[in-house]
UniProtKB/TrEMBL annotation:
PANTHER family, per the entry: ADENINE NUCLEOTIDE ALPHA HYDROLASES-LIKE SUPERFAMILY PROTEIN (PTHR46553)
Descriptive protein name: UspA domain-containing protein
Source species of the chain: [Myrmecia] bisecta
Highest taxon of the lineage: Eukaryota
């Protein structure tokens, strides 16, 4: 891969944590996607995020990619699993995935998990964009059985199809609690997780008008 790279060093300020120094540097450089590894706290634990990845997820204003040591082996193409609740944040995240990350040879599966009935026509916009972008994939509704959470149903689907990257969209982050589904997916997923943050929410509520320019 012929990619341009720049090595940047940052010394922590007085009473500043490594997490704070990292996100501060990423904000200064207007990094579109902050990629961090997650090995768990004080040793490998698949049911919790490491300190740096957890802080980045909550405090960084751009997208965050959390790479897990338990991810499936990469291949020439990437298999994405996009989990949607059809909210504005999810719709924005799908557009970001399709236009900024997805390659022609990739596969994108879209899932809507619910314990109720599938809303009529909910998958049509996703199917249409997959067709327009000429990307392989399928859109399906997952019925969540009694006693199982939506997030666990999504994660089980990811394991079944051996996806490389799980993609979720969120808004209302930072010091506020993340959405329960997004949080559990990030915390317990065994594959790499891409968290797409709504850029409009960033600009409107945090005043970062130049963050995505």
């Amino acid at each position: 891969m012929q990619l341009e790279s720049t090595w940047v060093a940052r010394q922590r300020g007085e009473k500043q944590s490594t997490c704070e120094a990292l996100t501060e540097l990423a904000h200064e450089r207007h990094v579109g996607v902050l990629v961090v590894g997650s090995y768990g706290r004080k040793g490998e634990k698949i049911d919790m995020l490491g300190t740096v990845s957890d802080h980045s997820l909550r405090e960084y204003n751009g997208h965050v990619c959390i790479v897990k040591s338990t991810s499936f082996s990469p291949s020439d193409s990437t298999r994405w699993l996009f989990a949607t609740d059809n909210s504005l944040a999810a719709q924005t995240a799908f557009a970001v995935l399709m236009y900024q990350f997805c390659k022609p040879e990739d596969i994108v599966d879209v899932v809507y998990a619910t314990s109720g009935d599938e809303p009529a026509g909910i998958m049509k916009p996703y199917e249409q964009l997959l067709k327009e972008r000429k990307v392989r994939g399928r859109c399906s509704c997952i019925k969540v059985p009694p006693g199982e959470t939506i997030s666990s149903a999504i994660l089980n689907e990811g394991k079944r199809t051996e996806v490389d990257v799980l993609v979720v969209g969120i808004c209302g982050y930072g010091k506020q609690k993340l959405g329960s589904v997004s949080e559990e997916c990030c915390r317990t997923s065994t594959c790499t997780t891409l968290v797409v943050k709504d850029p409009y929410e960033v600009q409107e509520k945090r005043g970062l008008l130049g963050a995505y320019q």
